[in-house]
Specification:
Structural class: mainly alpha
Largest sheet: 2 strands, antiparallel
Number of helices: 16
Number of strands: 4
Strand order of the largest sheet: 1-2
Strand content: under 5%
Shape: globular
Order of helices and strands: HHHHEEHHHHHHHEEHHHHH
Helix content: 55-70%
Radius of gyration: 24 Å
Length: 367
């Protein structure tokens, strides 16, 4: 759940996950365990013959690796204490300002802190964690809201909000606050589908409407670190990979065609950092590093475009391609756009394509 105000919307639901778990129906894993014992967890009188699809097997494997909420809570407590030690502070707020960075904590850990799971967290910790969750909600909506401001299609931002809410953990989904927010967002989405160019209104507890009231063009892209700092950090990350390769008796390489060496791993390096390598403003990177980073950045952009194309094909709505590209553009920092070659004129061309396609669809639909 996410709120854009200063209160903590999670505190009263701190034990809701426990109540939900107590009333939850048998999981797929429970049914399978019962089947192995010769029972059917859903119908004791029926014979059980289960054939698992690859997707079901993958889901089971993921569930098996997911730590229980007690472990998540304990790990979150330990992570906070480490952050305090590193920052040389004793609490999350110093002189009225947040003194630690919670960006390294996942959403489930933040939820554990915000709801004071097991009574392990202080009010200040709950407040800061709730604020970080709000920031993530804002970040999830920002590109879609920017696309909505350009296209006046409100289904885009409501769909983004639904996807964010649906990405919550089972503990978060087990609270009344999450259910209320999702119901409000779904109502807004359905209204937007009926009149895409009209902002849904009059929906109680609608977090999207509250967000748009504050950020009508989308929240600013989160670029709190200077670009020089980003370059320094990614330089250190590449050097660390090179040192690890040397310890293994090999070298770090940037060309996948090389038959010897450890290929650089960009998977944990974000796109703004890749753009720092590509632009090389501080002259910190070699030509092969620049080339490899640009290829990775281009690959990510292609993947986003292809995902939008797939969405367009599956939905039968050709405007989804332009909408997806506009969201990708809006989610980039200025440096990422420069490194990718995505100029304002490129954005304007995509926007014109969206408008043209929308007009053609309106003619065909007789509206």
């Amino acid at each position: 759940m996410t709120s854009i105000n200063g209160t903590n919307p999670y505190a009263q639901y701190g034990s809701a996950y426990a109540r939900a778990a107590a009333a939850a129906p048998p999981s797929l894993a429970d049914a399978l365990n019962a089947a192995e014992a010769g029972n059917n967890a859903l119908d004791p009188s029926a014979a059980t013959n289960l054939t698992l699809s690859d997707a079901a097997k993958a889901r089971m494997a993921a569930e098996a690796k997911t730590p229980d909420f007690t472990t998540v809570t304990n790990d979150a407590r330990a992570a906070l204490d480490k952050l305090y030690a590193a920052a040389k502070v004793t609490g999350p707020i110093v002189d009225g300002k947040t003194a630690i960075d919670l960006s390294s904590l996942d959403r489930r850990s933040l939820f554990a802190i915000a709801t004071n799971s097991s009574g392990k967290f202080t009010p200040d910790e709950q407040s800061v964690a709730s604020g970080e969750l709000t920031n993530r909600f804002n970040a999830a909506l920002a590109p879609a809201a920017a696309a909505t401001s350009m296209t006046k299609n409100y289904t885009v931002v409501y769909k983004a909000a639904l996807e964010y809410l649906d990405g919550a953990s089972s503990e978060e989904k087990g609270t009344a606050a999450w259910s209320a927010q999702r119901a409000a967002v779904l109502k807004g989405y359905e209204a937007a589908k009926q009149k895409p160019d009209t902002a849904p209104s009059g929906i109680s507890g609608d977090p999207v409407a509250s967000y748009l009231a504050k950020y009508p063009d989308g929240a600013p892209v989160g670029t709190t670190k200077s670009f020089s700092t980003v370059a320094t950090n990614v330089r250190a990350a590449l050097d660390a990979q090179a040192s690890l390769a040397a310890e293994r008796g090999t070298e770090l390489v940037y060309d996948p065609a090389r038959k010897f060496g450890q290929l650089v791993d960009f998977s944990s390096i974000d796109s703004r950092s890749l753009s720092a390598i590509t632009l090389n403003q501080d002259q910190k990177f070699s030509n092969q590093e620049i080339y490899a980073a640009k290829k990775e950045l281009d690959s990510r952009n292609r993947a986003n475009i292809l995902a939008s194309l797939k969405q367009s094909q599956q939905s039968g709505d050709p405007t989804q391609l332009s909408l997806g590209i506009l969201q990708s553009y809006s989610g980039m920092s200025d440096e990422e756009r420069q490194a990718s070659g995505w100029s304002p004129s490129f954005r304007d061309n995509v926007l014109q394509s969206y408008k043209s396609t929308s007009n053609i669809l309106s003619i065909l639909q007789g509206s």
